Amino acid sequence: MIEIRHLCKSFGDKEVLKDISTVFENGKTNLIIGRSGSGKTVLIRNLVGLLTPTSGEILYDGRDFGSMTKKEKIMLRREMGMLFQSAALFDSMTVLQNVMFPLDMFSDKTARDRVRRARTCLDRVNLVDAENKYPGEISGGMQKRVAIARAIALNPKYLFCDEPNSGLDPKTSLVIDDLLHGITQEFNITTIINTHDMNSVMGIGENIIFIHEGRKEWQGHSSEIMESPNENLTDFIFASDLLKNMRKAVLEKRNIGNTAI
């Protein structure tokens, strides 16, 4: 579990994050949504330590990140997995070598055990047969799956994903969503996903945080989002007339049902 308390971040006179407090739960897919420039990426960067909050606290299972020593922060980062917007694979390494990279850097296991662990992770994303290929020889969706395998190689407690479906077709995006959701539940990881993909929001959004102009304006489950009274959230989700009409139909149907009762 990751808890943030009254988190603020400013760059000079510009306040980007404004008094955000929330909890990201373990074993659930926690999604951060909002318009471009709302503060989502800045929030993620504060969580992983790439930026330092102006004020507020970030607690990893009760451990205050801000008060940790340099050594303690390094140890905590070994508990984190990262999935970037681009797969960020090493072109000169095979698929297997890419997955082994964090193991070679941080694990004290034998070479044989590191290979075994990397292959286990590739098997989890259904890519064992691709271990000797190079990133340029596989599709974008397969590259994302390799990146997921690499992100979980060290058995992370916390998994951060920045727009994991960026550049993927809808069908492949569903595959990535299913993998992230399944891995999160299977290993009881605290997974935080920064996304614009409404299919992801509705499909795997177990704990959704909506950020608007640096403030947390709404939090809830995907099953609750359609009926939210928050106008900024409604405008963000139902940007097209088609989606607005779908929402209107759902609410009208529900009102008719309530009247009948």
Automatic annotation (TrEMBL):
UniProt keyword annotations, A-Z: ATP-binding, Nucleotide-binding, Transport
Superkingdom: Bacteria
GO molecular function: ATP binding; ATP hydrolysis activity
Domain ABC transporter: 2-238
One Pfam family per UniProt: ABC_tran
Record flagged with keyword Transport: yes
PANTHER family assigned to the protein according to its UniProt record, in alphabetical order: INTERMEMBRANE PHOSPHOLIPID TRANSPORT SYSTEM ATP-BINDING PROTEIN MLAF, PROTEIN TRIGALACTOSYLDIACYLGLYCEROL 3, CHLOROPLASTIC
Entry protein name: ATP-binding cassette domain-containing protein
Upper classification of the organism: Bacteria, Pseudomonadati, Bacteroidota, Bacteroidia, Bacteroidales
